[in-house]
Write a structure and sequence with these properties.
Six copies of one chain form a homohexamer.
Chain A (H helix, E strand, L loop, with lengths): L1 E6 L4 H12 L7 E6 L10 H18 L5 E4 L7 H7 L4 E3 H10 L5 E5 L5 H10 L6 E6 L10 H20 L3 E4 L7 H5 L7 E3 H15 L22 H7 L6
Parallel strand pairs in A: 1-2, 1-3, 3-4, 5-6, 5-7, 7-8
Chain lengths: 250, 250, 250, 250, 250, 250
């Protein structure tokens, strides 16, 4: 099975972090490729940037979906996940979705713990879109600036552990989801300091993508994610325009 | 007061329909301009196209927001509404939002009635995003093809009235929201044939935009819609990149 | 267009406060009259008093609805709003409803901020009746007595600003709704001290009433707000009894 | 223990029906008095009439509460129940509340079955006010006119049994609540024809009122139902005005 | 009427506490028997123990249901209540259910106050199973060990009153439910120290069981609690196996 | 990694069906053992039997958990899943949970399709326990008897496909979950006849169990699933009693 990890952020170092975490749980029969968005912002953290990132996800999938059995949208708010699911036949898993659904199997309610205030509103909308508000005990975010997006997990590890402890003790979290591509790989390093299960979203996403590929679901011809009818467009990236027009090969 | 109506579809004829309906309820102290998206699809009806349309909304607002007191996102699913609200200081109202909130003042539960099956899933997500699921009795959509997007309201008027009657009698709708830019202006023409209030979203949006402009709210410096911090980007439309970077004049 | 503002409290000074705030955003083509309840309490703040106030609203509307294009129930808990909507053909807007729906267009979640503990339970029931619990971040009320109901907004302005700040910082409010007829006109005076949009309910209600009048919805003949069949009664105010009996002129 | 059954309808024959049903399950140590509203409509079925009925309940309780250990608001939509609970120290139970809570102990979800379309909207608001929407499978109402409010249960018995069967088979009802004062006493007569438990609300209300009296709860001095502070009023029924003013003896 | 109180805990002293509280409100025409589980744990407080307790409830009811008009599952989480309700024809009331539904008649939202942290998760699941999450202001539990399960109400009375006060003041509780079989009989002793109604669950359960017996509902032949078809089994307690196989006498 | 599949039904043939389906997607580095309940019923389908099955799950896990990295509760209603999760340190996945969470990654709303009416009520409670009611479009069950529990999937395959089509067309299902151990392995055989993704729960459960084992979460020492304190018991299966008493080796 071949899986494509799509980093909708433009920062290559994040793609490496994500891939490394994902590879640590790669099943023997699976291969992983990754790609970094060429257009957008270094690190998506707002509703505006989620639209920008969603466009990148759709463009990349239009170009490359035919070569893969499943794909991962590797930013926590899952930009473009619904669109990707309706437009392509292969399973597509979001980083947030994968982390949250994994948490659901490890306890009753989970808390999302992340490194920057700016991420909260977008994450909340993502939780709601997935219909998991009832399972989410809280979203907790660190205050304060950070030095570098690719290094924030080292810089803030201790503070994130403290924040997780607050989520457990004050919000009733049964599970901690460390959220955001820049925290990929952190969960295994801090799990012994946190007294409930801690989920690494990149690990979870890789495994779930492999699971969906293994289950080989047929792409929907009916229902709310059936592929839309062909449509003309103006000014869109070429591969995406062809996909929307049903003029791609797939 | 100056209001900008943004049609995120690329069809000029829809912009005219929308403007005409809006102008029919223009308060004396208000002026209305309109603009049609240069990039995208003739008529947005999917999650994919909502992302595309959201980009157009953001680009257009980046270029023109400084000249207006309020803006309207004139497609029923309100593409980019959350992003627009966090990125700009002027009030921005969505077509769906305006129609649904108006309906809330005219009865208990409303039904959304529209002309094409393809619109259902996106509209449902829009209702949920606005937190109005409890007020929505149903979303009803016509089956069957239509000849022309700019003429669909004439072609389908009788069928839409029938569909509204089903929503009233079978789903318990107190109010009908005729949904979709192509239906702009239809409500006043069919209201005598429907035994509950019928909302024209373009009319509602114009009035609510004027209301918000009149109330002159201060743009948020706190809360989930406070303007995000400046950020660099790659490959975005110029005006949008400048706005995201806090390098525009506003 | 002619709008009637009904103050279900018996305090004339509140009617003046409400009217002044409403007039500050009056569209050029609209006129506003107001009326104060002759029966009831100086200031409604309990479930009991809401029933009393609801009776006054129904009696006043029975006498005067035929002369207006829309009406406002000018107490925050919207006493009698559902009954008024089923009994009369003109649109009727509640102060709470108008404030909350306006807030919905300005952010994600709003907090209701008011001047007395006693108001909380009734306001909570009002939020729930409108199906807006998911959009309401909190209801915050000042402790402590106040000198005069018609002067409480001056006396408590600073404390109300503080309370709004708590709602923003602790409850995650994106918008503040200053609630209660006695706070009419305060929002424009304190909005520069509060870093999110602040809604004045009297202003909002006036504008929404004018909007509904402009949209000219047909009164419902079906649905849950269709006018009930004629019925006899004993001991009710004369105009109300005639309206219930379908023996009024309208 | 002494219990007062308050019929907020003005029809004496309904008071007799209600009392007879209630008396059929009267515990040996309990006595029951009843009273019929002097003001209002023969049979409450709308939001407007619920306000009128609520006034009657408050007036009657103001006059007579001191002589009783508990009271019953004997109309299915429980007019004035919240107000009664905040204004008086004795427990007050509503007909709808009693029927629905009893149903909750007999199955998972209940359906409300009643004899007239007009009752639906008010009943739905009552279910929601009690927070029991998740337990309510449906509200089913007969179409068609009836001859006499005091005889409707005989006239419509067969149709009501049919309607109950539909609720069981199509809506998944585990329990049937026969709703409306005019159906008091019907449940025991038709229960052998309905294959799930059937609740008589008057019976349930009598028993719950006796239970609350037996438990002797202290009236709330805190919380949302604590008695409001004394307040002046104009034009209210004398006993009610005294109670609101804290000038009654109790 | 004959009622059976089933203590699914193995501690006889708790059965006595429960019976004594229940008897204090026994209607004159009712008799009460009680039984203590022979298998299980001294005091149920976890999900695991709820399954164990549920088995005991089913075994005891299989042996004894034919002699009673109603039964009480006398542990706060209501172990086995759904199973008991589907397997037997007599009404079965849970301790939690009885306490919570009583609280619903005494105010808007209740808080559950209990003596040990361990009980929280199970109680929360119980609240949700009954669909009463919207009426539950909070579940508050004491920290710290206790000396003896049969004496904990004396030892902790003052702390429980303090905890109730916190629920009232911080969580907005209108009613306090003292939860857990070991607190049976405590409510009447502390009610004068708590400024809102306080519910004793054993008292409430006895009264509700008597009420259901008085209403004489027919056991369901349809719906989700209709008795399941006969089935063979292996290794179950004899009476339970016979009941499941439809080979018991009832 | 070693995974234990626990069939809480007493039918060996179901264990074989479950194992075969699970093995079809076994990752190369994983082994699967299975065990059939010695106590209980041939096929669990009621609330009563869920308690019986939950006891079997706990007894089996008490005996064997130390030899495995993860376990599967292989009956659709997930009997004992919460108890197992609090009592043991290894991850435990339920058949229903695995199927539903997989469906969540393949579409918006799923329908549960199964072969017998009797299963509906228990399945509904299972959906609610997992907090997935908002994602569940419907539960659809075949009417009519079946010949043999181990052969029902062959006998009813065509009818189940028809039922799935109804769920898609009438209930709006985006994904079909074929529910119940007896349907294990059916999904891959019928997926070409159903125009949306179809989930095999045994396959999904095997993959998710392997995923959780790969992620190696630390067992909770805090939160609602932390292992309960040691407790004595009477009459329980020996291994379970030792586990509850903290006297087992693990």
């Amino acid at each position: 099975m071949k899986i494509l990890l799509i980093n909708p952020n433009t920062t290559e170092a994040l793609t490496e972090l994500l891939s490394e975490a994902a590879r640590s749980v790669l099943p023997p029969d699976t291969t992983l490729d990754s790609v970094t968005a060429a257009v957008g912002v270094p690190y998506i953290s707002t509703r505006t940037e989620a639209i920008v990132g969603g466009m990148s996800v759709l463009e990349i999938l239009s170009e490359r979906h035919a070569d893969y059995d499943a794909a991962i949208v590797a930013a926590f708010g899952d930009p473009g996940i619904g669109a990707a699911r309706e437009l392509f036949d292969i399973p597509v898993v979001g980083l947030a979705e994968a982390g949250m659904l994994t948490a659901c199997m490890l306890g009753g309610r989970f808390s999302i713990v992340t490194f920057a205030q700016a991420l909260g509103p977008w994450y909340r909308e993502c939780v709601d879109w997935h219909g998991l508000g009832g399972r989410c005990a809280s979203i907790r975010m660190l205050n304060g600036a950070f030095r570098s997006i690719s290094d924030v997990q080292c810089e803030k590890a201790d503070l994130l552990v403290d924040l997780a402890m607050q989520a457990i003790e004050q919000d009733g979290a049964d599970v901690i989801v460390l959220a955001g591509a820049p925290l990929s790989g952190l969960a295994p390093m801090v799990r012994d300091r946190i007294p409930v299960p801690v989920v690494d979203c990149a690990q979870a996403a890789l495994r779930h993508a492999a699971t969906l590929a293994a289950l080989r679901p047929v792409g929907p011809q009916k229902g709310s994610f059936a592929r839309p009818a062909a449509k003309a467009s103006v000014g869109l990236p070429k591969a995406l325009a062809l996909r929307i027009a049903h003029k791609d090969c797939a």
